[in-house]
User: Fold these one by one.
Assistant:
Number 1:
Amino acid sequence: MRRKKRRDGEEFGMGREVVSGVNPVLEILRAGKRRVYRIWVLKSGKEEKFSHVCKLASERKVPIIYASRAEIFERSRIEKNQGIAAEVDEFQYSSLEDILTCAKRDPKGHFIVVLDGILDPQNLGSIIRTSCLIGAHGVVIPKDNSSSISPASTRASGGAVEHMMVARVVNIERTLRKFKEDGIWVIGCELGGDDLYSFDLSGPLAIVFGSEGRGMRRLVRERCDKILSIPISPRGGVNSLNVSAAAAIFLGEVARRRLAR
């Protein structure tokens, strides 16, 4: 295996990355999907907050290295790393078929989140965290012109990426066409659509969110069966929401309706 060196001369295997933060590292250990090679923990006299991580790491025979704040920053390249970082395998994506197979088992129907070009890893991680918590079957992102599952998005998700199937596809519009052929109703979230709260959200659904700047691309928008919007108060002074905030509201409403059935 080829190897890469950091400035301090320490070698890292290709196909690995360093994830920081207590919850992300803990969830990587809990999920057990990625190999964890070693964990660096801040030696500060406050190791109690790392106790769950250290216990799991010990059970899985993962080396724990006590290090200074500067040493952990050198490895994570994140200032607010919470005093912990882990060298792990890169995230392994699921296939689209994995998500569809899982969704078919749900008597309430498919609940799939589609992200058409989210560029900010913080937004990607936040939406994946919401999708995981409200019970979506999977998240679909494009291979190109999109943020990917990286240490930054893993951290932003609080480790939720470890418990959510995420598939990367070549063509979002073609994927939506397949969904429709399988009887899945495709709903786009965008300004100027019908009222989210007045629409029937029962049955198999794929919910589409566009990128931070341009929204959904034209062909993707045209592939949607319906465009819905979150009503915005005229007294608010602004006319749009951050995409991760919009996704939390929109997906929360879908989940509420599904739970009520």
Note: Residues 243-260 form the longest helix (18 residues).
Number 2:
Amino acid sequence: MTVYGGQGDPARTMALLWRAHSPAAEAAGSKRRTAPGPKQGLTVDAIVEAAIALADADGMEKLSMRAVGERLGTSAMALYTYVPSKRELVDLMYDQAHAGLPHSYDLAAGRDAAVHAWTGDLWTRYLTHPWLLQVSFARPVLGPHEQSVLESLLGILHGTGVSAPAVRPTVSALFHLIRGAAQTAAESRAAAAATGTSDEQWWTERSTQLAALVPDFATRFPHSAALSTAPPPADTPSTYDPVAHTRHTLDAAVNLLLTALTKGRAPS
């Protein structure tokens, strides 16, 4: 299920996103809060927190204003005074789920260590809130917390002398690597429960069938066969854990990108 952000009313959405970070938005929010309507016990923050908890538990498929209202012990209608619709709520959830990540990283150990720390923090956040990966990356929500994640990475790159032409493709590559890896890890976690079959069982059963049905597989697909039989890198996790293996692959991919950046091969 793919959810697209940025579908709500632009003026209201942006004012809500920046309500605690913009004097103009805060003033507009104060005026709205003086309007008649249900107020006791409800705030935008409480609604967003409840919606995030709901998405953490059940995914975006079960998200609705009614479900959020029920979680708060009230009705969907009571929420509309604060958040106009589910469309604005999705943007608020997405941005808030990025709150609390570091605004800057220590560069004393060098660029690569800082980039890996930033990568690890964003990876962990995606796996903590896997529904974030259901919100399309095609259109950012343009909220303060999402922007802070980007700003912290730019601070690392600019602070360690990465050339201006290389910054944009490096940023894009890192975000796509992390989101793609986290998506695979999140799906791996969910696959066993959704299908009733563990990853190990799935691979064992199908590889056995493949070997019986295609005995000349290695001849027909020599490069694939060579990859499957090649010894893993020395630091590969010894036990089978699809999430750990995906993280290991992500770290290796980030290393390749950083090595290329050092050698001046990043696209410009």
Note: The chain has a mean pLDDT of 90.
Number 3:
Amino acid sequence: LSLAKRGRIDAIIQDVAKQNDAVLYTSDYAQSLVADAEGIEVKYQKPEQEEKELEFLRFFDAQTMSVHLKEGVSPLAKKGKPGAFELTKLEEKILTRDYLHSIATQILERSKISDSSNIEISKAGALVIQYEDYRIAITQPPFSEGYEITIVHPIVKLELNEYTVSEKLMSRFSERAEGILISGPPGSGKSTLASSLANFYHSGGKIVKTFESPRDLQVDAGVTQYTRLDGSFENSADILLLVRPDYTIFDEIRRREDFRIFSDLRLAINDLEKRLKVHIDVVEKGPSDETATNYELPFTFSESKTAVILSVSREYTGMHADVYVDDKYITSSRIGRKGQIKIPRRSDTAKKLMKLAGSQNDIQIFVKDFWSYLKFLDLILEK
């Protein structure tokens, strides 16, 4: 075992094959590559996985929307259809932690070898896996007080024309569908309708992307599903701007950051130009540009080896701020993670800031009233 840990067993096998001019048969891909590099004739045999039906599938039938498995409790399921379902006890048997752990292990192992599986979220005590069209959330201490597995499965996939939609609403969907908000309680069919809209626009010759975490919308193959890039939808939004989709579906907007990104002017600027039939450009601002809707933020000043750092409250993360020194405009910047505005030390902006500011008291940071900004944007879009 000690030799195996250091890779010595593999080396001995390769030495024997080389000395005897033998053919090395292996199902270890890394070993096959090393042996090939050593000039050994290799026959790589891809390991065959025994495809056993996943244990959790026995809890599902055609009417099951979700299954809820928790240690110390009988298995439960929501049966019916969106908007009309009931919680049902599947059997009297009380579930044990060992049984749930075996189900979770089976799911995790399958997700590693299946092309139709993705690990969407992995944190201490919580794991979310998208397996085919099943969304599986596995929680355990310290996140939850006990072991629990929740599995959600869409049982309905509808085309938009299968809904009872008025001519007026269908016209709105078809001709000017900017800014559709779908709201409702869990299980009411929000994601089903969002999927239908995505497929409707895709079938109409439009480029459609989705923002999801986890990625569980039931959409056509031509619709690309994005999730958080490097843990943030803010990073995903930068990619979205480059690919320029005609429509973007945001699924499960929950956090403050999600709303800010959704409302970001960068995602609406093309629509503004088309609707107003003008070109929107960026010009240098001055003190006269400030309005009553701007708010000064308290902040702390610090420096690193590479940047000047202005830190505000984290609740303003993702918003745009203006930096002034003694009422003289210096720069505008997005407030980044941890509520920080970072200005590279070698930049002209940092040099200007340090030259004009005698102390932190000379610097002001303003952020626009977020909700007033949203109302303004809505008025523009209506016009």
Note: The first helix runs from residue 2 to 5.
Number 4:
Amino acid sequence: MKNNTIKILLIEDNELDARLIKEFLRDAARENKENIKGTVFDMIWKDNLSSWLEYISEGDLDAVLLDLNLPDSTGFDTFFSVYERIGARPIVVLTGVGDIELATRAVREGAQDYLVKGEADGRLLSRSVIYSIERKKTEEELRAVQSNLERKVQERTLELKERYDEIEQLLFTISHDLILPLVTVKGFLGFLKKDVSSGNQQRINIDLGLVGDAVDRMEVLLIRALELSSIGKQKNPREKAPFGDLVKDAMIAAADCIKSSRAQIKLAADFPVVSVDRPKMVEVLASLIFNCIKYTANASPPKIEIGYNTNESEIVFFVKDDEIIMDPLLQKNIFKIFYRIDDEKSSDIGLALSRRIIEVHGGRMWMESGKDKGCTICFTIP
């Protein structure tokens, strides 16, 4: 409805009925009792279904008045042919006294109303059209709300499943990775007992050192697991900051690693301002820098690029190296807890932590890798 003009398509094969309906609408607009003040009805008349199909692809309209019995279509098939193409616009069925049951079925299937020919006047006709438009509009709004709710429920369900799988994986990994240091502690406690009995101080010191190393590995494992489980529960207030400042803080945190590896880091000329939990976001960036250096150890020196791209709906930040090429089948696993790329790489939880921090911010994190493209970790910050 534009400028209080309601555009109506009438599909009716009887010319006399079509003229009468047009007069009814004109009189109703003139009386202006049942309508919005200033409403004008602009009616287009088609006398068969085929001509309507040609019109709908070209024109715009607010409502359809439909006679179910036409020269080229009859009964409920007429309603269904129009209903499946009409989209969000309402249909008011026009019927004879003998076809009320058919009209009632059409209402059950999606028509907004029906009127009996010979019993409807201008007041009833205009009111039915206006109310049908409003009801249809309300239905579409409710349908959109329901669809959005269902989408959110699906997303939340998927998120909960991912968290459940993550917890299950965490428990399995901790159980698995704790076995080795526990076996080490148990074994060397036996050696320690013998060495204490023999008074071999050198062997005692070695035993204690190996037990201490095993305990340290267990501590690191448990601390990192605790960090992962606490993300989202312990939050710092968000603050606005230039993303470039966060990158500089991360480079300071990773300064020793950058220096020892002689890594070369290329930064974008400018960065946008973001609203983030600053300490956590610096932790993410530092972790990504550490990972780039760790997995490009053979490069001399490692080359890393930190920047961003802007599309129509969001800003995508990235941390990229030009050495690692990862199999697409492995890219889905890289964010799993303690995932090992190969037997030579030790367990790591950094990428899993980083993704969880980004998700708590409402963003996404993913990996892109391909031939001659290196490996790029991308993420968004709403």
Note: The first strand starts at residue 5 and ends at 11.
